[in-house]
Amino acid sequence: MQSFSQWKGKPLIINFWATWCSPCREEIPEFIALQKQYAGKVRFIGVAIDEQKDVAAFSKQYGINYPVLFGEANAMELMRKEGNQLGGLPFTAIYNAKGERIAIELGRLKKEKLENYLKDLAR
């Protein structure tokens, strides 16, 4: 169990994903690049809804440079609380440095759209 409050104080991008999800596989390399670009200003967190061994292999293969948590059974409930009533993946919640949710995105989040949020958040 992890508390998201440990990352409070910086903007936070929480992405729910799975290795078998094609749109997830498309956006993760962009998240990796943006985490590198905004290092120290924004924190990405991945919440994997998948088997731990699959996620570990995927993370190593792609070189994920941000924390990846294993969502297990409670991740679906957490997504619903965040506003994902459909339970679809990928799903991203975006928070400002005060811990206030400013946006949610269901489906593949394009780099350009996420950068628009990050430019304002990383000031």
UniProtKB/TrEMBL annotation:
Its chief place of residence is other
Cross-referenced PANTHER family? THIOL:DISULFIDE INTERCHANGE PROTEIN DSBE (PTHR42852:SF6)
- Compartment(s) where it occurs, according to its Swiss-Prot or TrEMBL record: Cell envelope
What superkingdom heads the lineage? Bacteria
Q: Which InterPro entries does the UniProt entry name for this protein?
A: AhpC/TSA (IPR000866), Thioredoxin-like_sf (IPR036249), Thioredoxin_domain (IPR013766), Thioredoxin_ResA/DsbE_sf (IPR050553)
State the Gene3D superfamilies in the record: Glutaredoxin
State the UniProt keywords alphabetically. Cytochrome c-type biogenesis, Disulfide bond, Redox-active center
Looking at the Swiss-Prot or TrEMBL record, what is one Pfam family this protein matches?
A: AhpC-TSA
Q: Where is the Thioredoxin domain?
A: 1-123
The question of whether Disulfide bond is a record keyword is answered with yes
UniProt key word Disulfide bond: yes
Which CDD domains does this chain map to?
Answer: TlpA_like_family
Protein name, entry field: TlpA family protein disulfide reductase
